[in-house]
Amino acid sequence: MKRPLRHHLIRAAVLELYAAVRVDGALADRALERLLKREKNLFSAERRAIGEDLFLLLRRERFLDFALRLDPARVPSQKTLFDARYAALRRLQGDSLDRIACDPSLRARLAELPHELPDGLPTLDRVALIGSIPNELAARLIADLGETDALGFAQSLLERAPLTIRANALKTTRDDLRRVLRCEGIESMPTVHAPHGLTVRGFPRLTDTSAFDDGLFEIQDEGSQLLAHLVGALPGERVVDACAGAGGKTLALSAQMADRGALLAFDVDAARLKNLTRRANRAGVHAIQSRAIPEDFDAACHAPKLRGRCDRVLIDAPCSGLGVLRRAPDARYRLSASCFDDFAARQSALLDRLCELTRPGGRLVYATCSLARVENEAVVERFLASRPDFSLIDAATLLPDSARGLVKDGFFKPLPHRDGCDGFFGAAMERS
User: Which residues, 6 or more positions from 8, have their beta carbon under 8 angstroms from its beta carbon?
Assistant: First the structure.
């Protein structure tokens, strides 16, 4: 017998989490995880509903204010504002007025709540309200992507990103992995652009599968998989992943190299590198050498024996994360107008210092998960102007045939609404 949902518990949990994110600056996924561990009496359906409603609130915040005709600055308290937004969300989801807890003064507005934006709104307002992003960010998207793609990207922020995995070529093939997962009750489809990828239907707990325990796959977005193709690492080479993080791209590079050669994983966060070690052990990778580096790492000072001797260098630079906002709906509220220039300055400094690892004739790849031109093309153009010993390689010549349509002006530039994967930027350069 199906148990009825206890909506009062769901509402209390959602509003508690929403306040933690929007007032206290908590990360939404971690706050949700902590609450679900604490509230052990919740049914599984209630747990799902809490997560879904929290992320919908974050994705639709500005539209909800617009639909309610609310000016947040004029609402008497944050609690009143948050209650109103959640009431509007429940109304948009089809709840009747008598089931929605809200201030009586809002009932007339909830009764006539619009589901869509009216025609005739300026493009900037449409982008900002659809994507629930600040006007300054909407203006940047329009300037960098054009009106059509800015609107498309804003629309993609309303959706949950697909669950994509990469078959570990050291242990299996994509087709064999698909059969193994089907035996565990998980259906998947081959990715459109990445040759080793599968898009999983639904959102099952993949880490509970035997295939995961056996190291047959890694969870990795299709665009991220393709960035590794720009590097094109070969068996026996010396390759550096200079901002390795938890190592998703590092592991993809190890498969390209058939686990032969020297694969150096650098990062300033030693804890994340420990996570990479665990993942590498599960994947059956032995060629990775991880190393924590200082923030001001300079090849000449900190790695003189590697300077000018590495065949491939990947710099997946820290960035605004604009291209992956649909994976972290709360991240949009942590972006400021100044953060893009701040990131660009750090990215340029990283590129200037780490490029020295590349040997003559070797390949340097600069990548971000941002869509902002100031973090992408502008950084590369400045670098190439100052370093005539590096030249741009057309990314289309390095990618699988199925992915060459994701290249513009020689740069790898997929977009979520157009290409299905996260938004990335990649520039491949050769040192003469």
Answer: 101
> Is-contact 128 65, C-beta < 8 A?
no
Kind and range of the H or E run holding 239: strand 238-241
Query: Do the bridges between strand 288-292 and strand 163-167 make them parallel or antiparallel, or are there none, so unpaired?
Result: unpaired
**Helix ranges (DSSP H) in 238-323:** 248-256, 270-283, 299-302
* 114: DSSP letter: -
**SS3 of residue 403 by DSSP:** helix
Indicate yes or no: pTM above 0.85: yes
Q: How many CB atoms lie within 10 A of CB 151?
A: 20
Q: Is 307 exposed, middle or buried (0-12, 13-18, 19+ CB in 10 A)?
A: middle
Q: How many angstroms separate the CA atoms of 166 and 222, rounded?
A: 8
Alpha-carbon separation of residue 38 from 31, 48, 388 (angstroms): 11, 15, 57
**Is 369 an active-site residue?**
yes
Tens-place pLDDT, residues 125-134: 999 999 999 9
Task: Please tell me the distance from the alpha carbon of residue 412 to that of residue 194, in angstroms, as a whole number.
Answer: 13
Catalytic residue, candidates 102, 319, 369, 421? 369
pLDDT in tens, 146-170: 999 999 999 999 999 999 999 999 9
Ramachandran angles phi, psi of 268, nearest 5°? -80, -15
Query: Which two three-digit tokens encode residue 51?
Result: 């997560």
368: left (phi over 0), alpha (psi -120 to 50) or beta: beta
DSSP at 428: E
Task: Dig out the tokens for 237 from the structure.
Answer: 């080479």
Q: What single letter denotes the amino acid at residue 111?
A: A
